[in-house]
Amino acid sequence: MLTVTFPAAAFGTNCYVVAPGPGEECVIVDPGIGVEETLREVLAEHRLRPAAVLLTHGHVDHVYSVTPVCGGELAAYIHSEDRYRLVDPLGGSSLGPGLLGMLEQQFGTQATWREPERVVEVHDAERVSVAGLEVDVVHAPGHTEGSVMFALDGVPVGVPDEAQVDRTLITGDVLFAGSIGRTDLPGGSHEAMMRSLRDAVAPRADSSLVLPGHGPATTLGREKATNPYLQDIA
């Protein structure tokens, strides 16, 4: 499986491009702020053709570029409970006050938003077949109501053998290396996050490679052994 990861221009949000291999169709996961140019370079370098955009949740730092990336042709997949966030992710209720001002100060232009034309709502335990990939949707609320993880069989080419992983879990802002996503934003819930860690994360195989929404990759086995939030669950 070909997987390319690069950070967005703001908030260090990881954007993932996943394909069965070079020259194939691909999916783009969480195209955040200012990713368009890098994304064009990645697609050209590996001769990839976008087939869909997958969104782990509806916060602006994960969805800001979804409409230009989709281009009116590709569908954006998002959990039904976060669908409403695509109407206006720049609104003050999304990430709290001051965000728009910060973005304007950083990029020198006013942030704008246009809702994507094609949106597909997904649900827990649904399997999405796209770009030659089989992607399982795992609903894991807590960071937002509709936060999901995407589970795929196989791991990116180039993962060292000593990592001892055989599957991939793209966790968005549910699980990070050593931490979890914050739960104090509108739509967040600490209680829901703890349930998600217990019911959606902890039962999954230790041999899962974790690709989070921010920060470095890790493994689920490592997180179960060292992440204080998963240790609390145990």
From TrEMBL:
Keywords: Hydrolase, Metal-binding, Zinc. CDD domains: metallo-hydrolase-like_MBL-fold. One of its GO terms (molecular function) is hydrolase activity. Residues 12-214 form the Metallo-beta-lactamase domain. The keyword Hydrolase applies. The keyword Hydrolase applies. Its cofactor is Zn(2+). This is Hydrolase. It comes from Janibacter melonis. The lineage of its organism: Bacteria, Bacillati, Actinomycetota, Actinomycetes, Micrococcales.
